[in-house]
Amino acid sequence: MKNIKLIKDLEFGFSGAEDSAVTVDRLLDAPARLVVELKLGKNAVLKRHKADVPITVLCLAGSGQFNAGEELEDSQELQTGTFITLEADIYHEVTAAEGLHLIVSKFRSDN
Fold this sequence. Notes:
Blueprint: E1 22-30, E2 33-40, E3 45-49, E4 55-68, E5 74-79, E6 83-86, E7 92-107
Antiparallel strand pairs: 1-2, 2-7, 3-7, 4-5, 4-6, 4-7
């Protein structure tokens, strides 16, 4: 019986992320969790949106800004190694400076 499943060998950085481009790759789509890889090119913006479940965001490379709240009033700088969490139904937006490479995990209800 195999207990470990390799999802992907990640290549850190911005290959394939052109200026102002946002690329999304679903790494895992399972009943209790969704994990996506996001690459935002220089000055790219992932516009204001919200998730219906809690999320975590791990910055693998680059720099940018994560804003959250009804008016996006809360701000967190993103840089390599930044790991943040956000509760469900909170509006948020991500802006890349020189580019960003992120892993976002959504935690779905088991029900």
